[in-house]
Write a structure and sequence with these properties.
This is Sulfotransferase domain-containing protein. The protein contains 16 helices and five strands. The N and C termini lie far apart (47 Å). It is of the alpha/beta class. A five-stranded parallel beta sheet has the order 2-3-1-4-5. β2, α4 and β3 form a beta-alpha-beta unit.
């Protein structure tokens, strides 16, 4: 098929208005082989996505022209989305070496999102973190961010910076937990659906594992997104250390595990945890989002290592 025939087929088979993809479009996309690679860090905010994307871009640069892609066209807030022309360009356009697009997007698995992920065969990685620590980190981010960036994630009827302290606390306890519960629950259901349909499911990562075993965790991501190449543990360790030193770029902040436990009252913690239990209590405990009651009963407060936000 010539280039003009390929373009004709693509233009007559673009995604439909309801977000679904025609079988003709999927077939054309899958038949294009350029050696390019794409991966999607579908991380919620404040779960070390910025840190990991920075490390991945450098490591994938050993074999590719690697770069960060925020996915959406002319969208500079946290509400990034997948954008078909951008995906197509990343999929087929190559320079002297194949490209590797690292997409860091705060995405829920809507129908059009999963259809595009499957059509372009994009491996997905999802990060998790203790919900109380996540919320405190989100507060710090919103406090420090310009109004446009803070409001894209956290605003109620008024901008974050115009809310009173009590109203901001209401957002942390009653609004954001519902967002995280929806995010985690929806991706969990999609993961189960992938197993049922025989598709590659997302790779799930725990924030605490980044603290305890960063080389192993980053190595697992690389195996998931680039199984055709090997990455030496020494190289991963070196990149991890260099990334840690880029505090301004990777938003290295306090990153203290356990600070959320001290910030919220017992009543507030119960409200927050109840919201996350709706996504599946056993699964949320296993992913380190909710505390394990059995572990909490046996041990004192956890250590507080410094890691990336």
């Amino acid at each position: 098929m010539s280039a003009f025939e390929t373009l004709y087929h693509l233009m007559t088979a673009l995604p439909k208005a309801d977000g679904t993809l025609s079988s003709e479009l999927v077939e054309v996309v899958r038949n294009i082989r350029t050696g390019n690679r794409q991966c999607l860090l579908a991380f919620p905010p404040k779960v070390a996505g910025t840190f990991l994307r920075t490390a991945l871009v450098e490591l994938l640069g050993q074999h590719y022209e690697s770069y960060l892609s925020r996915g959406a066209y002319a969208n500079v807030t946290l509400s990034h989305d997948l954008y078909f022309p951008t995906l197509l360009n990343q999929h087929i356009v190559s320079g002297t070496r194949p490209g590797a697009a690292v997409m860091h997007l705060h995405l829920n698995p809507s129908r059009h999102t999963t259809a595009l992920v499957e059509a372009f065969d994009i491996p997905v990685v999802i990060g998790t973190r203790d919900i109380l620590d996540t919320l405190v980190s989100a507060k710090n981010m919103c406090d420090a961010a310009p109004p446009t960036e803070a409001d894209s994630f956290s605003a109620l009827g008024a901008p974050w910076h115009d809310l009173t302290e009590a109203e901001q606390r209401h957002v942390l306890v009653h609004v954001l937990p519902a967002w995280y519960a929806r995010f985690y629950g929806a991706w969990m259901r999609y993961s189960v659906d992938c197993h049922v349909r025989g598709l590659r499911p997302p790779l799930w990562l725990r924030y605490d594992d980044l603290v305890a075993q960063p080389v192993d965790l980053i190595g697992a991501i690389l195996t998931h997104v680039d199984p055709t190449h090997t990455y030496a543990p020494a190289d991963i360790a070196a990149v991890h250390e260099r990334t840690r030193r880029k505090k301004a770029d990777v938003r290295l902040n306090k990153g203290i595990s356990g600070r959320g436990e001290a910030y919220f009252t017992p009543e507030e913690k119960e409200i927050i945890h109840q919201a996350l239990r709706s996504a599946g209590e056993r699964e949320m405990i296993g992913l380190g989002i909710l505390p394990d009651p059995a572990v909490s009963a046996r041990y004192d407060a956890p250590a507080v290592p410094q890691v990336a936000e």
